[in-house]
Amino acid sequence: MKPLVEIRGLRKSYWRGAAEIPVLADLDLTIRRGEFVALMGPSGSGKSTLLNLIAGIDRPTAGSLRIDDREISELSEGELDRWRNRSIGFVFQFYNLVPVLTALENVEVPLLLWTLSRDERRERARTALRVVGLEPRLDHRPGQLSGGEQQRVAIARALVTDPVLVLADEPTGDLDTQSARDVLGLMQALHRAGKTFAMVTHDPRAAACASRTVRLEKGRLVEDAA
Amino acid sequence: MLSRAAALLTLALRQLVRSPRRTVLTFTGLVISFFLYTALESVLYTLESVVDRTASQTAIFSRASGRGGFFRAALPQRYVESVRAIPGIVAASPVRFYFGRGRDEGSFAVALGVEAESYLQVRELAVAPAQADAFRKDRAGALVGRGLLESNGWRVGEKVTIRGAGRLPSLSFTIVGAIESDDRLGRVALVHLDYLEDVVGGAGRVSFIQARVADASIAAAAARAVDARFASNAVPTETTTERAHLAMVLSNLSGVLAALRAVGGLTLFITVLVVGNSVATSIRERTVEIGTLRALGYGRGRVLGLVLAESVFVAALGGAVGALLAFAALEGGVIRLPPRIGFTLGSDTSVVLRAALLALPVGLLAALQPAWSAVRRPIHDALRAAD
Q: Is ipTM beyond 0.90?
């Protein structure tokens, strides 16, 4: 299958004064369209940094990072903002919903940057909530929803722009077992429907739901198992 | 496009219900600040506009030059005939001040001794013609300003007494008419000069001569001509137009005006700090949310706009409410100057509008620094604030 993410010689370092602290070292990785990749590794292994670089919310120190045939490390900040809005869906550990908005309004948030009529925007958001099984609760605010439901709203928000890649950072880290199972089941269903996922997780049960597991240690890829 | 803008505005303003108590406290602070600011600006407006509102374009004042205060009777009364003879001057009347207390202890009452006929030619008084006639005929009669009547509970037809200040004897007169004026003449009693001189003595000396010129364009020249006429006399004159005279009196208040301006500016500065602190707290609580919006593709400018819109909205609303409340309080007479000041405190829609518009930069300034700091923060760093 055609590669969606092509990473070559990727390096990322942080600086503390004059001291360089390498986080990722000469990383090569390819993610094909339709894959569900779990990024695993101990704390400090660089998996979250890798996810941030793929998401375009951090810049690499060196190397090439092509996503959907675009070298994103060369995009300006404005281009990167627009690209993220159109191409990437985010699912965060703590859902990161806007507490003063309803589920429907939260899902609409990425679409507010699009040129759509109010009705078109609403319809797309409603459809996304239907996909995650939350249409009956679209008028509820995050505080009125369970953790699992909030994460499903977040998944709907990630899907509403129909991105080429959905990035999930510990999506089950704040959920009870049943809710975690539901959320992972939903992600698997979306993967089967053709969505590409990259998920950072510590949880082997979550990783087991992925089609491929990539393990990082000290900024290097140490295992890549389908 | 419009729907998107409305939705983005909703996203910004919905944040105001996140912490209703903070929003209400910030709003209340803004209302109080802009109430005070508008009230102070209205005092300045009143003082600055009093010249335009009350000074006649054709009136000039002559007083004894270098003889102490304006209120002293130091000018020879006989000068008035010479003043009347100066070309361009159509009427002139000597005027003598008398200060005392009205009905209540501590109250303040002013009488002006004038030559009835000539003073009525100098000044266009808002007095019923029959009452003006009664004043001309009754040597012990007086025309009393509406404000002075009301503050003392006096009525037309009544015989009343002003108790003299210091060692001045009391002055009794019959009120034969009311001056319907809200300026300084609304706060005085006009009595006959010869009657006043009979009571207090010191005939032949007056506080000033008030004259009217045929046309406003020659007022300054006429004033110079008066001073030239008496330049070599034992008591030379100092003549100004009424406008210049009032401006001079107000210039003595310049220190007070500057202090009022400083207090107004300080009020706004403190408002910026208070609102800024509230916005900073609110933004700190939303660090992750701002990071999330940025991750979802919202550019720095757009997020900055959302935060500023929220702050500007609260400031504009608080500013408008505060300014309107001050306007209502001033126009409704809730805030008043002491009657002895001689004019009524008021406001104007331009003052209210200016204060309300000033709320916009206040909201902007208050939010700019914390909002800019928030959007400058790297996205991945802002998102980590949840950990």
A: yes
pLDDT tens track for A45-92: 999 999 999 999 999 999 999 999 999 999 999 999 999 999 999 999
Chain B residue whose CA is closest to A77: B299
E-strand stretches of chain A: 3-16, 19-32, 36-40, 62-67, 70-71, 88-91, 165-169, 197-200, 212-217, 220-225
The answer to whether B179 touches B150, Cβ cutoff 8 Å, is: no
Region of residue B54 (left: phi > 0; alpha: psi -120 to 50; beta: else): alpha
Flag if A118 and B292 touch (Cβ within 8 Å): no
Nearest to B117 by CA among B133, B100, B101: B133
Q: How far away is chain B from the Cα of A118, in angstroms, using its nearest Cα?
A: 6
Interface test with B, best of A14, A77, A109, A169 (most B CBs within 10 A): A109
Residue B270 distance to chain A (closest CA, Å):
29
* DSSP secondary structure code for residue A39 in this structure: E
B383 CB neighbours in chain A (<8 A) are 57, 92, 96
- Determine the distance in angstroms separating the CA of B310 from the nearest CA of chain A, rounded to an integer: 14
Q: Which chain A residue has the Cα nearest residue B20?
A: A100
Tell me how long chain B is: 387
- Tokens 């950990």 identify what position? B387
Q: Provide residues of B within 8 Å CB-CB of chain A.
A: 1, 3-4, 6-8, 10-11, 14-15, 17-18, 288-289, 291-300, 302, 378-380, 383, 386
Measured between CA atoms, the residue of chain A closest to residue B286 is A98
For B102, half-sphere exposure in the C-beta direction (CA atoms, 13 angstrom radius) is: 21
pLDDT, one tens digit per residue, over B58-81 is: 888 888 887 555 667 788 999 999
Cβ neighbours around A122 below 10 Å, total: 17
Question: Nearest CA to B220 among B58, B51, B48?
Answer: B58
Residues of chain B with pLDDT under 50: none
pTM of the model: 0.74
Nearest to A159 by CA among A181, A137, A126: A126
What are the pLDDT digits (tens) for B199-254? 988 888 999 899 999 888 888 899 999 999 999 998 899 888 877 777 776 777 77
Sign of the CA dihedral running A1, A72, A217, A95: negative
- Residue labelled with tokens 């292994």: A45
| Summary count for chain A: helices (H), strands (E) | 7, 10
* C-alpha span between A87 and A168 (Å, rounded): 14
pLDDT in tens, B131-160: 999 999 999 999 999 888 888 889 999 999
